[in-house]
# Entry
Amino acid sequence: MKLCNHHPWLRICEQGYETSLIDTGRLQTLGSRFEQPEDIYPSLIVLVGQQAKSVALEKLFDVPRSRLFKSKPYIGDIDLHVASAPPSSRRPILIATGSVGSERVRHTPNRHRCRDGSLWPLRTGPGRSESHHMQRTEQAIYSRLLLPFTDVFCIFASDLGGFRGVASQLAGWLRDVTGPTSTPFTRPSVVVVSDKIPLTQMAETEAQKALLLLLKEETSQDPSVLFSFIEVVAVPPSQKFRPQGSMEHLKQQLLLRVRKAENCRREARTLYSLTHFTAFFESACEHFSASGSDPFDFIRASRSHNPLAEDHALHLTNFFKACDTARDLTNFAVPVIASSLMIDSYPPNCHVFDSAQVFQSLYRDALREALGGRVVSFEGSPDIILRSAVLKLIQGKLSQYFDSLVSGTELPSASLHLQVLQQFVKGWRRIRSDVTCLCCIRRPPQYRFPCGHCFCETCIQIFGQTQPTRPWTYQVSSCFLCKRVWDQDITVAVKPPTSGVSILSIDGGGTRAIIPLTVLRRLQERIGLPIPIQKFFKVEAL
# Structure
C-alpha cells in the first residue's frame, strides 16, 4: 500500500462555542515506515515561522515544499515531516512546522480520508474575539502540548516581525505556564534565526543579549523554567539561500542542540522510543483536551492500561501491621515493599523512568497514608520511627533495586522481586493474610496454598509455570514466600483475556436426564478437540 504523503498533523477547529484539537494521525503514519519502532528513538524539532521557515525546511532537511503559498495558514496549523536519513538510522529527526500570528479561523474539521484521526474537544470558552481565543489556544498547543516532546524550537525572527515579535511569542509561552509542563520534564532549547545581523559570532552574541533584554521587558518569568538555552544564529538573507551550504551553520547548530538534548534525555530517562513517543503524545492530547492547564504526567500516562489500585494504601497498611518492632519495619518491610514497587513499576516492554520520579509520582501519597501520623509506633514495643525516615528508606531501596534492574544483568523485575521475597523465608513463616496478597502487596488474594499463604491471580501468572499446550493453566510446586514444597503441584486455570464467561445450565431429571448428557457428548464429538466439554464452561448449574 502506498504511504500517505499528506503532512498535516495538528489542527484547531472552531464550531459554534466549541473548540476542538484535531490530530490527523500523521505521527502514527510516520511510525509505520519503520520496521522496529520500539528500537527507534526520534528527536523533535519545531520550526516556527512562515516563508523563511518553509524555505529553510527544504534547505536544512531536504523536505520538499508542496503548495507552499497557495493559501494562508489557519490558526494552529502544524505539519509534521521526517528528515531524510539512512534506513538503518535509530535516531530520526521529526520536524514539526507551524505558523504563528495568523488570523484565519478554521470552521470545518477536515480530516484526510487516507488515515484515521482523532478530534479532542477543548474545555475552553471564547475570548474577547474569535481569533483572539483561537490564538490563545494555539499558544497553549506550543507551550503545553508540544513543549514536553520537543528538543529544539527553531524560530525565524523575520517571519515574526523581528526580535520583538520573538520575545513576545516566548513571553506568551512563559506566561501560559508557571512551572514544568510535564512530569518528568526535559527542557528544550530555543534557536532564533535572523537574517538581519552580520554572519559573525560576535554579532550573534550581541543579538542574544538584546533578545533576552526584550524578553525581560515582556515578562518577569524566568525563561530557564521552560528553556535550557536561548541562542541567536545568523543566516544569509532569504534571497541568498540558494547557494549550497548557505545554511550549513544553522543546520550544525540545530544538530548540536539535538545531540545535547539526547544526552539530557538519556540522563533523565526521558528518551522515548517511537512506540512510546506515539502513545504518550496521544495521551497528552487527551490530557490537553480534558485539562489543558495541568502538567502532563508521563509516568501516570504510562499506567493508563494498568492504573494504581484505589485501595493500595489499605494493602500497605495491612502489611505494615505485621511489623512488631522498628527493626522489623526497616529490615523486612522496607525491602519487601520497595521490591513490590519495582515489579509494579517496571513490567516487560515498559519505558524505564527514573525510580525517584516514579516514587514521587505514584507511591509517596499511598505510603504516607498507610504509615499514618508523622511518627510510627508499635504495639507492645517502645520503638518509634519518623514517617519521613521510612519513606526515605523505601525510596532508597527502590533506587538500589532499580540500579540492579538497569545494570545489564538482563534479569526482569519479576526475577529480582522473587529473589528479594525469598531472602526472608523465616519471616514469611509467621505472617499470613486473607485480605492482602503478600507477594505484590497490591491486590486481594484469590488462592490459598497448603502452607497458608494466599496469592492473587496476577502473581500466580507471573511466578507460576505454564505448558506450551496449556498456556492459561499454571503449575505451582512451592510457595513463592516460604519456599515450602508440596507433594503434588497446584494447578490454577486462568480465564484467557479473549474468553467470555460461559454458563452451562442443565434442566430435567429422572428418565429425561440422559437427554442433555447425550447432547453434550455429541457436541464434544462434533467439536473434535481433545478437550473435555466441561472445560468450555466457567459455571455449571444442574
Remarks:
- The chain has three domains: 36-301, 312-493, 503-541.
